[in-house]
Amino acid sequence: MSTQSDYSLTRVAVTLLAGVLLTAGTLRQAAADETTDKSDIVIEKRIIAAQRGADEDGAIAPELPPAHGSPVVTAAPPPIRQSGFVYCVSGVVNTFNPQMASSGITIDTLSAQLYDRLLAVDPYTYRLIPELAQCWEVLDNGATYRFHLHKNIAFQHTAWFTPTRTLNADDVVFSFARMFDTHHPWHGVNGGDYPYFDSLQFPQTVQSVKRIDNETVEFRLESPDASFLWHLATHYAPVLSAEYADQLTASGHQEQLDRLPVGTGPFMLNEYHTGQFIRLTRHQHYWRGMPRMAQVVIDLSTGGIGRLSRLLTGECDVLAYPAASQLSILRDDPRLRLTLRPGMNIAYLAFNTRKPPLNDVRLRHAIALAINNPRLMQSIYYGTAETAASLLPRASWAYDSESRVTEYNPAKARAILRALGKTSLQLNLLVPTASQSYNPSPLKTAELIQSDLAQVGIRLTIIPVEGRFQEARLTAVNHDMTLSGWSTDSNDPDSFFRPLLSCAAIASQTNYARWCDPEFDALLYKALFSQQLASRIETYHSAQQMLAQALPVLPLASSLRLQAYRFGIRGLVLSPFGNASFAGVYRDERQEQTP
């Protein structure tokens, strides 16, 4: 029997039990917050076509293409129940290289399993900690950074690559020079877009990345940057294999680097079926010790109530980002555990500031006044989020409580619209369909906003955007607004401001507002050049006050991170900064309870 059959057939059989094990009342309660009332909602059923990176079925390649004719799937792993767990999450994979992703499960789930970084962020203390680099030095007042690597770190041995050496400085130089050096032979492979680091203008910031010796790498910057280490600790900064890249260059298959991953992480890619599931298998020679589970299946096939039913029937072991409306069901079931942690995230509404009529800041303020944020908190988050007063979450050390932008005043909104002569206005709103840590129910959020705007005379058309097409949203500049959000791996405010609202972020397609203000950019760079925390806080407060006036985006909510799992699953870590490694996850057979 094929490796696909083990998981797929079990999934079909168990799903058929969902209607029996879930009462009709429970299903109605959960589904009420996951479905759309078609009689009340105007939705343009249009999908924005991707410009690159996906075939007609959304695959990054036809199911994981064989490397030079070798088989994709090696020996069949044992049944998942005996040797691993199923992680259910909503999303689509456009690349297996986090360098080339702007958001989604490549960042939130896969990166920590497939790769390691030079540094990481401790999920409990929020401090930088070593990962591949055992230590580092900050030189030249923050303009030079030198990293000393651990020895004997093995790369994954896959069906498409057999390493002959362990990690060394060449791998680090290759991984970062590819992104930062626009003349590097690998820079343009698979499009040459590195959204996160492009939005930070790192190609202009990093002067050089060079090998000092086999275990030492030095980054030299054009000027001091107080945020630099924090950016290297994000999941956007994995270390790849230079030896693997050399092999692909020699064979003429460079495009496979980002599609058939090779890293040093605890798990390696075994199988991928577009829109269905990803199977990861254990990296036997992982440098931190062999992972406790032999495999992980990441189920991508169902959202909303379907994922909940699978958790309740035992087909899913872990449910990522459950809807807040489902919390009472999850809490009341003795077979389940629920974890909640503060999150470094923000949900926001981005205005297309380059397209009339939303290039008028007065209209943007009118729309903000018309949105009933308290209702969003109640109907979408059910007490698991707080109203956002800034683009930064309250947990950030640079949060400014004086720059509040959220106020519900529809009468004032109508008055502004009358003064502008906009008493009958039609706008559209792009909305992702997948739940995220910062917004568990994007479509329902859009519907509530649509209802609010209708009360002040604005007719809003909702345009659902499928996950694999989200990176192409800004290439179609005729939209009016985008419902989006951001979750960062970093505790530095720069991880929010520059990727989302800097001028450079327009070209990298992470600035959905298409807003550019040189004065705002100047504030951001002033904060980077300072090594004094008090000075940085003051500068970031000024930046937040500027955003409150210009309002290119309307912050909506800062949410808790939620995760539900079967009682017998142990070792899961829920981080405020994104998903953590699954290396320590295991089953406690004494606690295992099957339906």
Automatic annotation (TrEMBL):
A cellular component term, taken from the record's GO annotations: ATP-binding cassette (ABC) transporter complex
What Pfam families does the database record attribute to this sequence?
SBP_bac_5 (PF00496)
Identify the SUPFAM superfamilies for this entry: Periplasmic binding protein-like II
MF terms from GO for this chain are: peptide transmembrane transporter activity
Q: Would you kindly state one Gene Ontology biological process term found in this protein's UniProt entry?
A: peptide transport
- Please report the stretch or stretches of sequence annotated as the Solute-binding protein family domain: 128-505
Q: Which PANTHER family match?
A: ABC TRANSPORTER PERIPLASMIC-BINDING PROTEIN SAPA-RELATED (PTHR30290:SF28), PERIPLASMIC BINDING COMPONENT OF ABC TRANSPORTER (PTHR30290)
Instruction: Give the protein name, as stated in the record.
Output: Peptide ABC transporter periplasmic component SapA
What species is given as this protein's source?
Sodalis glossinidius (strain morsitans)
